[in-house]
Every structure is written in structure tokens, then in C-alpha cells.
Amino acid sequence: MTYEFFGATYTVLAPEWLWVLALLPLLWVPLLWQQRRGALAVATLFRTLAVVLLAAALAGFSQQTILAEHKLALVAAIDVSDSIASEGRAWMQEYLTRLSQTLEPADEFSALTFATDAQVVIPPGPPSSFSFSNAPLPVTPEGEGGETNIARALERAFALYPEGGEKRLLLLTDGNETQGLAKRHIALARRMGVKVFPVIPPSGQHPEVSLEKFVAPPLVREGSAFTLRLVVRNGNNKPLPGELTVLANDQSLTRQDITIVPGLSVFEVPAQISQRGTYLLRGQITAAPDTIAGNNQQNASVAVTGKVRALVITDNQKTHLARALQMKEVEVEFRRPEGLPTQLSELLEYNCLVFDDVGRGGITQQQMSAVEAYVRDFGGGFIMAGGMRAFGDLNYKNTTIERVLPVTFHEQRPKKKKRTPIALFIIVDRSNSMGYNSKVRGLHDGQKMLYAQKAATELLTQLKDTDYAGAIAFDSEPYLLSPLLRLAENRSELVSKIARLQYGGGTDFYGALQTAADQLGQARGAIRHIILITDGDSNRAAGDHYPLVATVAQRQITLTTIRIGADTVNLQLLSDMSTRTGGRFYHVEDVEVLPQLLIKDTKQVMRENDDENEGPKEILPKIGERGQILRGLAEFPALDEYMLTKPKDGAEVQLYTDAHTDHDPLLATWQYGLGKVVVVTFDPSGSGSVDWIRWDGFSKFWSQAVRWAIRDETPWDYRLSAYQRGERTVLQAESYDTEEDSLLQIRLPRGAQTDELTLLPVAPRVYEATVPGKRQGSFSVILLKRKDGKVVNQKNETVMVSRLPGESLDEYRQQYPNRDLLRALADGTGGRIDPDLQELVAQKREGHKKLLHPLDGYLITAALFLLLSDIAVRVFFGPPL
Question: Residue 369: what pLDDT?
């Protein structure tokens, strides 16, 4: 028979002797006849206790103990990192409560919690010293535990075991360690005799939204737009509305509402930072439902340097290319060809070099060699664009410049003959109905008149000074704005008078048409054409116009009629007028298309009637290998001319034409050494590129060409970042200097003093220094570059402290338990993964050796003492015998 009293175990070896206790009531019988019972009661009590002790001695009452080397020493290591969900935490609490009920009083128990670090929460002692049910185990709140460092938990647990005893470690974790290397401790556990028993709590996983990756360019230019890429995972089976936010140094940079489809999604977010410096970017995603906040954000760092600097070599500082670059936040410096730098160090101050329609004359071999070294050895960007002056100059052939370019120079086709001038009369309706809106009936806002004026004006600006033009406005009467003259004589007068037109009066275009036909009939050696813009009925009968139309056709004058408005009045008449004269008829409901329509019609007339013009009439660019330069651009305008070149092997022809031969390059690119080279085989500001100059995408095209070609980094650019490594703060500088004989140092202001540290190389062009103390948030540094003992460059920077580079968010990602790791820990130490409590207790008791310590000597001695006390009380305080 075994009994437990006050944490100790006792055994009765001969329980049959306990019958003696049945005689105890006889000892109390004398009290019934005695009057002075106080002293007799005390004496009887002593005698009763003495008999009980004698009976225990006869029954073999003994204490049971376990040898120290067989005592169980159990340590519970409880994972409270952020990867343990609330369901798992509650389950672990209940598991530990049940465990406390299975432990024996002689066992030794202790517990620790761990995440990034480990903390002892129950020191070694008997299980009865702590109640798991009444006083719950302190657990770090969800989201504050940090990452999982199982190795640190093992180290702390090993220090809690006594010298002897059976050592077991109950490891409550999912096994997804994000810090430390737990397997390295298996050998030590075996030497210490510690058996590891991993137990995996339930994961409590739910459909989850997480930010998997946040990518930012390492270096961008001040004021330049750049792209941030965020990869988002949606574990739900349906699209979710969400919000995407990017912070720069904790200040909002961009925010947008998004829809997150199931699976992986990639969001590209444009951003722009207008001030130089180093920025810590934080990408954040919010969505509902979502359970883990820790996996919804990631960090990246970006260095913002000065604006893109381009050196443009040109004879004309008012070139359209330079103006387009300046509109896109590019700092442009102009030089004439003879001012092209001869020293590489001078070229290295620029991100890109541009030849804007520059011939070979005046450029020396030394200058060309500097250009080649700038591109090939230092990654400088080089753009060459131009017409006959550039690619028609065969003095470039077999030179260093041709070697750098992705194309070769060739003889150009004979220049096509000068086109035949056009003699154009524009007839504009200025009647009262032109004061109304073309889309909204009854709206009197003058929209029709406005767009008719705009169309006529833009058409006139497209024509050359050698062309002829005249204009007539009409209501019920014709008004000659200008007779037919060369545009060199009357362009400004025509534009001014058309702009001052006012609407009002009736409608009769007969007189205007007759005047235009009479004047055009006198024009010789020109293409004769009339454009009639009207929106209303004529005061004359339709049949009255046909004899005049016959006269127009006889004089070889083409007539294009444009009917504005949704109604159908005079549609047949106007259509017949155009058909019988070889012109075109347009019924236009939306007057906003008028400007381009007039330009298109006039060009078509010139192409169809210019018999003297040899070669192709229009050069349409076609897309070849679409790259970054063409991103977001489509429907490229036609060209009147381009220069013939041939692409080299390895060149990427992004725009080409088949106008003369197959795949003649219009835009060609390639990589030359470390640098990128762009060739555009037409003059950006030439007469053959008029449509390009007026194209809405003109500035974007050239800006993207420069930004693709530029060398993003210069020897004076750095990317600074600061990271926490344990209790240390590490400052890292990525240099873009190819010279390795320079020294990088930092100065850290500290009150009235300044600490100066040298950054040591840890990888090619990567330098690090440990900053004194643990830094948080941002701090200022002065970065110095020394060469030959002298400071050659100095920058003041503000650095934000962030996570380690490349540090993953695995702690916050939902994943299956790492059973491979936990099984390795169990098998390597003699433990077992996921044992139930009964199994664990049964294993614990195997091989225990119990020792019995007889207590009869102590019991008999105490019984004799009590009997003597009984006699003394009776003699001195009892009644006389």
C-alpha cells in the first residue's frame, strides 16, 4: 500500500498489523467514570498516539524514494514567436495543464518561452510549485514574439538541468526557425543525455494575404519617376479589395486602391522623390479578411541622387530633342562639336552623351577615343540621332564612333526631287449655325467655329513657305480673307484673320467656291485643291451648283467637302461635289477630329498628285523588338525621310521600315561594353520629322531613350543603408567607383564630438562599419572619400535603420510545420516527435529504481516518549491511585 503526504511517498509493508488500531477505543473507556477528566484526557491522548506509532512500526511503515540518477528533469520550451497562431497558443496552455497532472512530486520541472531570444518563466523545482490551470503560463502576446530561434531555446534549456537525472526536453513549436541553426545542438544534447520530444501545436491557418516581395531600384534620379514592384499573395479563393501604400522614411509616398486576385499578383507602382538622400521604403498591403499583420509589409532602400545630366553636342541649342529632354527633368548642357571633351574624367560627370545631328567635321580622334572609353569601360550612355548631316557623313565610316554604334554607315539614296508645291484654298462657313455645339443640340458655345478655325490654322502651319494658300469665309456672302499667295507672304495674315472670325448670318457657299476656283485656275506648276467646311444648308437649290462643279473639275482642281453636324442636309450635294472633282467627302459629327482630318486630307492630295516626287510617299515606322524605350508608346507618326544604315550583329532594331529595303533601322540599340548605345536614323528636328515633332509622345520617346541609355551610377554615387545585427548597428555603403585605391570613411556627430570610422570592404564595392551603440529610426552621417590622403568627395546623408538586407518574412508566412527538423532533433537525441502524455509518462517511469527507508526505529522511539509522557501526566496531575 502506497500513500502520498506533503509531497513524499510512503509504503506499508505489513498492513495486517494495522488491526491493532481497532483496540484504540478501549483506551478511552476510563474517561467515562472519572470526574477530573482534563489531565486524564491528555494522558489518554499520549497513550493513543503511542499505540498508533507502535502499530505503524509493526506494519512496516517506510518512506519510498527514487535514486537521483533516475529522477526525471523535464524542461518545457514553449514557442511564442509570431508564427504560432492564437489557436496554437491556447492549445499549448491546455497541454501544459494536462502535463502538470501527470508529473510525480519527485520530478523536477522548469519552463522557458522563446522567440528571437529565450526567457525562463518557471525555474527548476517540483511540479507542485506552479499550477498551470490557476496561474496560466506567461506567453508573449501574438505579434510581439518576433522570429523563431530554436537554437537559442536549446542553449537556455541545457543550462536548467541538474547534474544527474533523466533529462528530457519538451519542445512545443512548429519547427519553422528563422534564426539560428538548431541541428548544431544535437551533438551537445547527446553528450548531456538530453532527449528532445517535439510536440507540434495546431497551426490555426486561415486564408491569408501577404506581401511576398518588394523591389525598388537601388538608385534613382532626383525628380525622376521610377517603378516599385510588389508581389502579393492572396490565399483566398476570391478576389479581395485592398489598399497598397508605400512610405518613404515613414512619410506617405504613394497610395492606391487595388483588387487582389487569388494566387500571386504583381503590382507596379510609379513613384517619384524630389529630394536627394537615402530613403527607407516600406511597402504595405491591407485587405480583409486577413489574419497575420506581420506579413503585410516589407522594406527596401533607395538612394536618390541628382537629376540626369546629359551633354548634348549640337550646332543648334534650340533643337526639339533638347527641349523634349528639358521637359522631362533632364539637366541639359550644350556644346558644339569642337567642344566635345577630350578627357574621360570630364565625360564622367554626365550620365549620357547625345550627338544631335552632328557631322564628323571638327571631332578629333582623341575625342572619339574618350567617347568609346566612356561607353565601353564606364557604362556611359550614348545616343546618336540625325539626318543627312550625321548618318549621311561617310567620314564617320571605319572610325571609333562607328565601332561604338549598333549600325554601320552607308551611301545614301539620291535625294528625292523637291516636291511639287500645293495651291490650297480653305473655305470656312461662318454662318450663325457655326455658333452651336456639334455634340449637344441647342448649346450655343461656338464649338464648331472654334474647331474650324483651329483646323485651318494647324493645316497652314504644316505647309512650307513655297506652298500657296488663300482663304474665304462665307455666310450668305463670301468674304475673301486672303487671295492665293505664297505662304511666305501671307501665312501670318491668314492665321490672324482666321482666328478673328465671328459667326453670324445665313449660308451660301456658291460665291466662295466660284472665287476660289477662279484664283486656283490661274495657278501654274502646283497641285490645286479646295477644302470646304460647312455645317448648313445653302440658300440655293442643289442643282444650281453642278455647272460650277463641272468647271472646277475641268480646271483640274480637287474639292474636299466636310459636312459638320449630325443632320443630313445637303449630304448628297456635298458628296457629289467631291466625287466629281476627285476629292473626298467627310461627314463629321465630332468636330474635335477636324485638325488632323484637314492635315491628313491635304497630305493625301499631295501624294496622289505629285508625279515628280520619286520614291516612297510615306515612311511608316514598324515595331521590331519592343524595349523600354517604346514602353507605353504606339502608333508612331510617319516620316518623310530617314537615313540608310545597316544593323550589326547583336543590335536590337526596335523600330524599322520596309519603305526601301527590308528592316531598315529607325531605332537601334545595343550594349557596348558596360554602356548602352541608341541610334535614331532621322533628324529629330528636321523637316522630314514634322509629324514626330508634333506627336504627343515625342518628349516621352526621347526621355525614355535617355533613361534607358544612361549610366545610373557615377563614381560619386553611393547607396547607404543601416541594419540591426543583434545589439549592433551596421552601416553599409555600396560604391559605384571602379577605382579600388580610395578609402571610405564616415563621421558620426556625437554631441560636441565626432566619431570617425573607416568602412572595410566585405564584398566587391561593398563596405561596412559597426556604428557605436544601438541605433533606431534615422541618424546623420558624413561620408568621406579619400584618395592619396586627401578628401576628394564628401556627402551629408541621413540613414534609416531597417532590417538586415535580404531578411525574409518567413516568420509571418503561413507554412506547414518543419517536421524534418523536429524529427532530426528527436531521432538524434533519442526522443520522439509528438508523443502523447501517457506515452511520455510511461517512458519516464521505465527503469526507475525505488528505495525503501524503514521508519520503525523513529516510530518506536516516538511511542516510548509518548508513553513516558502519559505516565508523567497521570502521576503529577491525575487523581490518586
Answer: 94
